[in-house]
Amino acid sequence: MFPKGLKNGFSRRTFLKSTAATAFSAGLPSMALAAGETVKIGFLAPLTGATAAWGAPGLSGCEIWAEKVNAAGGIKIGDSSHNIEFVAYDNEYDPAKARTGATKLIREDGVKFVMMLGGDTWPGVQPVADRTGMLFSTLLPSDLSPDTETLLAPTEVHPIYLVTGVQWLAENKPELKTAVMCAQDDALGLPSVATYLAAFEAAGIEMQDEPLLFDPATTDFAPIVTRLLSTSPDIVCLDTCYSDYVHPICEQLFQQGYKGQIISATADFYDQMIAKTSKEFMEGFIFQFPDFDDPALNADNINFKDANGFYAEYNKRFPGQWGAVSWEYAAIMELWKDAAEKAGSVEPDSVLAAMKEGGKGKHAFGDADWWGAEMFGINNALVGDWPVVVIEDGKAVIKGFKSIPDWYDQHGDLLIKHMSAYDQMWNQRS
Amino acid sequence: MFELLAQTGLNAAYAASYISLVAVGLVLIFGVMGVINFAHGELFMAGSYVVVALYADRMVPFFVAVVAGLIFVGILGLIMERALFRPLRDNPLGGLVASIGFLLILQALAVLGFGVRMEYVPPLTQDVIVFADKISIPVARLYVIIAAVVMLSALWYFLKRTRFGWALRASAQDPEAAALQGISVTQTAMIAMFIGAGFAGLAGALTAPLVSVNPHMGHTIIVTAFIVIIVGGVGSLEGAVVASVVYAFVHTFVTTFYDGVLADITGLSLMLIVLIVKPTGLFGSADRA
């Protein structure tokens, strides 16, 4: 009764999408890549506005990466080599502008791949992705859903990697038994809260209070810190607070006399935090984003090529600007380049197939699995090891790599429980 | 519990100080010129960036940078008065729209000049005054409280005890009658704009080492300032100060004892209740000023 393709899981919806994508593609400029032609990659992220810190530094990192790749001969597709060029579009973290940008990058600039921050801008872009079949990446896997098979989260599996920091903390400082947490009440903060709650529960660390949520527009953190410290916790967890929050919160913790453990997703510009507090106060601060001059990133299993050299060049060009996203978009490009060279093509469907071949991929921090069916409804998140970073003597040091899949195998039910409680499972999000 | 209450009270006193400096400036501009200055949050931001440029980047002493912030932002206010508000004196809606345009220009200039990321401002001092072992107030925050008390007292004295102050109040109450008495409406508008903008710049400059300085930091403070002037009574300086204190204490206590999101809802609810019970605000009258 049904065509064979439909019987074997090729749904009517997929059929319609594919047909639409094919029809749309027919109207696009020629897909063939001429010998020596530059390959254009779209960079669709906030470059201005309040969220620019999650986009602009990543573009800087990409340009350094492209210069290096181009100087080494470019990307090799079949028998010809091609330079890579980034075409940036500032979406100002606005879904409508992101949609316009995606259309422009694909139709006018002829890009072969589009990197995004994602988050609030993804719903604007999703129809374009579905219509064109273009390959997109996001830094936020909460954007993933079975609806869009060409959206990947190949680097930052936020917030699942946060479990590794708590796991390391519990193993290395077992005397710390109580915690409190604060977070901004937004799309980045809430799934992180659920993840930290799961991680603390798995580690046997008791939450002394409900997570304290604050408005993202908050500028004065003294009342929040007063509340956090009112129960004399062993651990203060700063969730995935942005730098604009982490810095004043730490300063307040210092000024209100806190002397315990701090754990956070990020500690961008931690040297400034040390200057505002003290080296002793920041000693032992745990977070998840290393400086790439760390010797641990020279290990054979690390797939980000010449991490130390990349860090040195970045700091030379943008002194003091290294942050969590400085390397992430470049790491995605490493993955894309390998897949394109393996596929012998830069076309999105070929690259996607090569990238996901065998269900394995080369994540920046080591070989990893394409994962996520339970959490995101689709195995489009590349998950493996993630570093745990600790500030020691004023410098971020990788203390080890922890396996996210291993943690999930043991405690996945806790994560699903807390994610569900905060309406953060993929099938709960509107 | 006593320590928690006392600490929260000190936190609220600090919040009330910088909010009142901003709100009083906004009220002064509205009272004298009849213009809702949407760029007031960006004037606060500009004050912070003066401290970044002078104190953080060029090692100018902090209090010199703060005074420079007050004067620089006051001059920005004069430019706004001359270029935007004076030509639109009979068109309050035009003034409002012009101020939104100026807001965007200031934000763009900050991005061009300093970039999109938050700026590092070295701490003025790490000294903390501790009471009863657990109640603390950083000296840098104490400076903000002292500066607010001194400047607001000085403004009160200026308005109530000097000829320029009387002229300002007369212009606010009835511009035509004031003009008939020989008071220059243009001159009083310039004075109001310099003081109003300068106070926002002063608040931004004083708090620069205590907050994250970035081009979009004006959003939060302008929303708070609008709530405060509506609660206090649009056009009432006393109302702005009292409402700043009320708002700061309510917001800070709700944040500490419940959470920050609920505190925002409570702040807005406070405004709604005042609008329903006394639409002119706590100290407002049916007439402007």
From TrEMBL, chain B:
Primary localization: membrane
Q: Name one GO molecular function term.
A: transmembrane transporter activity
For this protein, the record's Pfam families field holds: BPD_transp_2
Which compartments does it reside in? Answer: Cell membrane
Q: Which GO terms describe its biological process?
A: amino acid transport
Q: Does the keyword Plastid apply?
A: no
Listed GO cellular component terms? plasma membrane
Q: Which UniProt keywords apply?
A: Amino-acid transport, Cell membrane, Membrane, Transmembrane, Transmembrane helix, Transport
* Record's bilayer topology term: Multi-pass membrane protein
Membrane-spanning residues: 12-39, 59-80, 92-115, 135-159, 189-211, 217-250, 257-277
This protein is called Amino acid/amide ABC transporter membrane protein 1, HAAT family
Which species is listed as the source? Primorskyibacter flagellatus
